[in-house]
Amino acid sequence: MTLQRVVALPSHMTQQPAAGLTVWEQLSQLARWAPTPHNTQPFRIRPRSATQADVVALPERFLTMEDPGNRYCSASAGVLAVALEKAAQHLGHVLTCVPTMEFDPAFMSRATAPVTVASVTITGTCPPVPQGALLESRRTSRTPYTNQRIRFAAQQALSSVVSAAGHRLLVFEDPGLVETVLDLNANAIMDNLQVDHERREIEHWTHAGPTPVYGDGLWNIPLNQPGWELAAAFGAPSLFTVGLFRAFARWRQVRSQDGTPHIGLLCGPFDSWPQLYPAGRMLMELWLAMAHHGVVMQPFGSMLTNPSYAQRVARVFGVPDTWLIFRLGHGPVPPRSPRLQSLVLP
Q: Is the Cα dihedral 100, 101, 104, 105 positive or negative?
């Protein structure tokens, strides 16, 4: 079966950035689609000239409770760097992004002002290379998949992206193992709700109602969860410890992920800033390669930020250095989470 190359998008989502904007605003219109944990969008572009800018981190948008050491939020700076480079190619610019080696992810738990994480420079021009549709079609899919397995050639292409960055991509398709992981993830979500400080932090970024065009956080339609379930999760989390209700909630969560043919692991160094930034870059390149091959995925963050579940994942797979676990496969175009209208600081 031939895979689609890039999800077809409405014309208003693939047009060139509006005329009259500064180059940084034009780049932002495409780069803002870069994913971040819980869609907190913690980075901004702070222009210094028409060709130079800083990427700064806003401490109030880091998940300091749920993301110990701020590793995942910090790694998403590498995700944004790739998005900026692709956006520049789309507009006919050559752009380089150089991380600030002095940046300390753990410091973001104490920071009270924006912290510079990278410098960005437009170094020249190049023939425009269309990237807009690819950046916009890459998205997390929390809806059921089609159960269609990913072709071997596509898996090889994805593995090449990962191995080129010094990491490993492991893909599993045993149905029993897939079901085990989906069940583990459902339990991890419910157990994490019982940790008060983490739940309160996530609640701030979780919303029910119509998904706005511009915004941040996670909304119930892209989450593929009804509003009542979110209300129960944050208003009465102890319900998810009660036998029948917990069993029903676990069943609902697993069934919402029907048709999942594969579980994927990303394994490799993921501790210090010199490891986190390139890992984030690789993740974005991988996600874009998935979009190119018509593959969708959903990260399971709850299992690896919880030490108990991280140990269980290590035992199930016999792999000690997993830093991302996710389901992947093929499926319909999922609902889009909102993004801020601009990442550029005034």
A: positive
